[in-house]
Amino acid sequence: MILGAIALLLLTLLGAPLFAVIGTSAMLGFHGEGVNLSVVAIEFFGVSETPVLVAIPLFTFAGFLLSAGQAPRRLLRLTQAVVGWLPGGLAIICLTVCALLTAFTGASGVTIIALGAVLFPALSEAGYDEKFNLGLITASGSLGLLFAPSLPLILYGVVAQAPIDQLFVAGVLPGVLMIALLSVYSLWRNRHVPRPAAERSVAALWAAVREAKWDLPLPFVVLGGIYSGYFAVSEAAAVTALYVVLVEVVFLREVRWRDLPRIMRESTVLVGAILVILGVSLASTNYMIDAGVPQQMFAVVSQYVSGPNSFLVVLLVFLLILGAILDIFSAIVLIVPLLLPVASQFGMNPIHLGIIFLAAMELGYLMPPHGLNLFIASHRFGKDITVIYWATQPFLLVSLLAVIIIAFWPGLSLMLLH
Amino acid sequence: MSDRSGQTWWKRAERFGRALETTLITVILGGLVLFASAQILLRNVFSVGVTWSDGLIRLVVLWLALLGTLAASREGRHLTMGAITRWLPQRLQTVTGVTTDLFAAAFCALLARYAVTFVLDSREGGDTLLNGVPAWWLQAPLPVAFALSAWQFLTRAVLRAFGRLAPPQEVGL
Prior knowledge:
The structure holds 2 protein chains of 2 kinds.
Chain A: H1 2-13, H2 18-32, H3 38-45, H4 55-68, H5 71-83, H6 89-105, H7 108-125, H8 130-140, H9 151-160, H10 164-170, H11 172-189, H12 202-211, H13 217-227, H14 233-251, H15 260-290, H16 293-304, H17 308-325, H18 328-345, H19 350-364, H20 372-381, H21 385-408, H22 410-414
Chain B: H1 2-45, H2 53-75, H3 90-125, E1 128-129, E2 133-134, H4 135-139, H5 141-161
Antiparallel strand pairs in B: 1-2
């Protein structure tokens, strides 16, 4: 058993697919208890009994389709018209646009790849130094995970069986806080950069709004539909997907019909990679809960932790380490079911826990050794990974401050719910 | 000679497999978008509810996930923790890559084998889903997908061992 665990750990470190590792550990566990291993297949089939899951393929497809067309460019132009004339405006544009795009794609790599090519030269031209630009774009790539309808928010809701519409509301202010703090830092850091030449222009704003007339209704379809009670989350996902197909393929014709299969395949690969982990985790979680792992965790933690505040400190440290070694999707599926009962013993609200979890995991994108954004930015901009890493440091620290505020101020997440 | 024709046969099968995957994904995901939208229309405008539709949608999501899993296996795009191997020398990377591919192949094969047990049990028990459809029909894609995934991982291991594996695409998540 211990030998098996060591072998699995080694395989994980060597880059074995996580679903195979998790599935094997579940099999080892059940085998040790003398249970027939078809239980793993039965649990996997449980994926088809999970409600709301349909929102994941639909929103992912909609996000991939949006970023395949001209929507990112329109969004950029609109934001430019709104805040471009402010000092430091371009940095704020970068943060806002990346956050909004990531909310829809849920995939930070897509954001850096789709927007990096436009934003990086624009920032350089405006007089920002290269190190700042690299750090800004790399850090912006994972912003927006707290905004609806991001994939990690939905996945957390599914796994924690928490109401997803409430998670969507709870993420708003913490997400805004992150952008605000990073904007303040960007303004301060570039206080010597001359003000942008762009003037405030109503005509340009109007033109940008008209250009984005098909995209602007989207947030209202998603959020308005859900909050008015007209749509369930999964229905909003269906309407969003259908709407984006109509706009991108039929009305604007930015994406050709024959490109659809390729985009559908791309988005389904991501969905498959996430849901296969969910499937095997249903089995491993079941085993661990049978084996009383959450109770043991609680017993261990409560030896060192006296109350909710010290629990939060331990939780944050744990999540930051977790984020550095595991991607956000696997972490949600694998850790949340075990963490939830422990956190509730310390009186934590599951919605607040979700927001902390995602906010902390967002930092993982910027931390070595796993930090995905570092690798993508390094590849995208042809810079050494260590250059990217040091450029990102200040943004990492500012984001960390935001995460600490989010953790110790539950009201920020919960006030809009009441 | 026989080696080369063997390779073309194999390449053709791979191409066919990939095209079939993409077609199925397109049909299923496209159908899902239309069906889920139509359901809202029926419910809200015509006040018609179909009792089995939610169950069907959830099953279809599972099938789509299985297709995505298979496609991710083919393209080597599963989620991993591997970051250490990036700094290993090339030869060692090949060794670790082959090892982890073989491990994944073995797991998929094992899961496929026990999924067959699950499906056969379900057939024997006469389970039904969605108002009377034999459950095992709906469960059958499970062993198939993992058997094919096992094959993909095995293929990747062999290709990698002989240095024929195309370098991975840079993919964002």
